[in-house]
Amino acid sequence: MASEVNTSFLKDRRLDRIATDILRPVGVDRGFYIWMASLGTLLLVCLYAYFIQLDKGLIVTGLRDYVSWGMYISNFVFFVATSLVGMLISSVLGMMGYKWIKPIGRIAEIIAVAFSAVAGLVIVSDMGRPERLPYVFMYGRIQSPILWDVTVVTTYMTLSILLYILTMIPDMAISRGRIGHAPTWLQKTYEFLSFNFKHTPEQYKILLKAVRILLILIVPTAFAIHTVTSWLFAVTTRPGWDSTIFGPYFLSGAFVAGSAAVIILMFFVRNNYKLNRYITLEHFDKMGKLLFLVSIVYFYFNLNEYLVPAYKMKTFEARHLTELFVGEFAFMFWSVQLLGLIIPMILLLFKPMRKPMPMLLIAIVVLIASWFKRLLIVVPTMESPFLPKQHVPDAWMVYHPTIVETAITIGTITLAVMIISVLMKLFPVIPIWEVAEEESAHPDQQPVE
Amino acid sequence: MTEKKTSLSRRNFLRNAGVTAGTLVATSTLPSFNAVLFAAVKRNTKGPWYGIAIDIEKCIGCGTCAKTCKIENNVPQEPFFFRSWVEQYTIRKDGSLKVESPNGGIDGFTQSVPADQIEKTFFVPKMCNHCAKSPCVQVCPVGATYETEEGIVLVDEKYCIGCKYCIQACPYGCRYFHPDKHVADKCTLCFHRIKKGLNPACMDNCPTKARISGDLNDPESAISKFIRTKNVYVLKPHLNTGSKLYYNALNQEVR
């Protein structure tokens, strides 16, 4: 990000066109109401499932003493993972000076906000005594990885929300008088969120400084949240988790999931909001290359994570790996590795595959696969304990998620989609001022729509 | 007009307060790093330091210990909750292993492997190892599980948030999730009895005196003599948990 803003873009006639384009979809319409109402109904059903769990306890889930962490924790890891893309795109690529990320930076931020906020709730769903959540803050022990996780997840969420709001201040000010089609309460919200911004160079200077500090702070925080999440597993002695590369392994996987999520939203913004002038074919091409890059790093870590123990085949590791490679989990394992990693990597090498439609399909498969990948990290290790599986009831031996558990998990995903929908529909989804400044600085460049 | 910043301006005050608070918070975390590195309560040398010893050669697999424990400690009956249980190990002639523990051994055992295939069979009673470097205590986010100064690992059910981290951190499978209280639960070495000078219920009711517990600090105690005179071994010693449950004649197949 540049250290100064050339405010001449405010007088450029292009600003009018850009602002009108980007603000056109803003507001509430019938489609939005129907969409939110259906999501809300689904969420209510899922909340009822959570009510059952609160009432009867975790016995209504498939979790037992052998598999005491299941779908909830995998879902938590998935949410934390996907939220990291905000850091990758806004902070890392942004601070390295890549200009093309400007129109999609806010999409990445929306994902970061929604997914990190819901991640905190997901972990509560796994607690037997959720009403004692404040104890974590009141009596927290710094030795416990759970405390590290709680600390950094809340920090990352706060930083992401701050970054989202701060970078939107000039847009809120630009929108003054331009969102007559939106309801009054929304116009008032815009007025409030503009914090009386007047576009003075001094204000931009302060804003850029604040944003820069946030961008820098977000890098170590984001690294921390996923490294610490991986340490939840890696600090225990269980085969499959007892690994020293879990931190980078999780991080690289997080970027794969997050990039896929960004691509899905980009496709939606481009087609439904008719913003193909701003989210261009070039953006899809670049995101395709980015997804390939993070996938190949993730592939490298997968190779390390599975091949090295598979060479040694230590007693209990061998039991775990056999389950994954040829045993009970083989179908899920190979589907995830092939469909979620290897095949997308190969496809993305070809330019026609980096067009919006193929990219959307690839991204959806990759995102779904990355959810199952988290399940494959959590459950098989718990199912092949290095204890003898004794004479237990069948339901205790093998993990079968129950309907209640599945409903709660679907509920968390629904909630994340709702947050994303609100942020994408009620606020400009592309930073107007950054795009206008960029176009004003390079007036000759024509976007390849 | 430029305003001269006095040393007591609000900005300076806030900054100094922030620095002080930050330093205090940072310093206050330092002592706990001790526990991060060693995860151990210092062995108490003044009072008693409890350990357990089980003689596998004496165990007849009657399951009285498991049954007694459920009655004494009000452990949920169904379907599979135990603070103390017995496993039957059967090594077949082809070297393969079968482990069984129907209802934790409470109802006794029937051998499911045909007699002509059996090479060796024995019972392994299991319970909390009351480790000196407990992996379960190490990971608890709120300190609901802790080691007493007598070296006994307990759970405070009033503080447990039910995250289940300790259940999967325990390499011996000694913890379970209480279906009614929604918290982690485990063997207390009958803390309520020990405090009255009694033995744990499972020890007192063992018909063959296969299990004893006592003060490891007292060189004359039965357990100290047991450890000195027998070939004792702990479970999974490579994990360095500081287990204080010593088995005599433990087969290497036991895990």
Structure description:
- The complex is a heterodimer of chains A (449) and B (255).
- With 449 residues, chain A is mostly helical.
- Chain A has one domain (7-385, 392-441): Up-down Bundle (Formate dehydrogenase/DMSO reductase fold), CATH 1.20.1630.10.
- Helices cover 71% and strands 0% of the residues of chain A.
- Chain A has helices at residues 14-23, 30-56, 71-83, 85-95, 102-125, 134-138, 145-174, 184-193, 201-234, 246-272, 281-312, 315-325, 330-348, 356-383, 394-397, 403-426, 432-441.
- Chain A starts with 13 loop residues before the first helix and ends in an 8-residue tail after the last helix.
- Chain B is elongated, with a radius of gyration of 24 Å.
- Chain B has helices spanning 10-38, 64-73, 135-139, 165-169, 191-194, 201-205, 222-229, and strands spanning 50-55, 84-92, 97-100, 118-127, 145-147, 153-155, 176-177, 184-185, 211-215, 232-233, 245-248.
- Chain B has one domain (50-248): 2-Layer Sandwich (Alpha-Beta Plaits), CATH 3.30.70.20.
- In chain B, strand 2 and strand 3 form a beta hairpin.
- A 4-stranded mixed β-sheet of chain B has the order 9-1-11-10. A 3-stranded antiparallel β-sheet of chain B has the order 3-2-4, with helices on one face.
- The mean pLDDT of chain B is 88.
- Chain B has 255 residues and is of the alpha+beta class.
Q: Could you name the key traits of this structure?
A:
heterodimer, A: 449 residues, mainly alpha, Formate dehydrogenase/DMSO reductase fold, 0% strand, B: 255 residues, alpha+beta, Alpha-Beta Plaits, 7 helices, 26% helix
